[in-house]
Give the backbone structure.
Amino acid sequence: MVENKVALVTGASRGIGRSISLALAAHGAKIVAVDIDLEATKAFVEELKSGGTEAVAVQGNVTVSADVEKMFKVAKETFDRIDILVNNAGITRDALLLRMKDDDWDAVLDVNLKGAFLCTRAAAKLMSKQRYGRIINIASIVGQMGNPGQANYCASKGGLIAMTKSNARELAKRNVTVNAVAPGFIATDMTDALSDKVREELAAQIPMGTLGSADDIANSVLFLASDNSGYITGQVIGVNGGMYM
């Protein structure tokens, strides 16, 4: 599906980013793994290489323009092109509105929205010249429906969805598609730490009755990154078990 394509994934060393990178690699992509944690990223890249995948690790903070420029420079020098960008890096700083600090608002918007903007801008320059590209943004169900205690996170993901549509309109004529995947409740290390009762309450909100997995997100990204999705752009693919329709 993505054989010999070059994919740059932010937040690649763990969680959903790791699953996305593994799925792309399993279908023949070359991986540029970007993360702020260099040691974890190097270890992950060695794992990819041991499985036969061409890969390179890059340390970088997606909120810093110079770091973003370095990421894409390394990718270009290593593989000569970038076909796929997955804007996955993200953070949370949850608090109720009246208790949310300015710094918590700024940090979440910087990583989740500004970071995606900086990476997309850098990718768009290369992809426009290539006349080919796939940009996939990892949004969230809460960017569509809201969630108490997450005004900053919801705003960042809602903004990411809006930016996805704007960028899709700008880049369509250059054969660059821009789409978003909006995960619902996904089983992660964080949800594993919750009590059985809390997990049951979460699952009860989902028509399909269960939390999703990181692989569910990765499979959706894999489709959007492939040539099979060539006539799809500006769309938000909800992977949420029917929680939001």
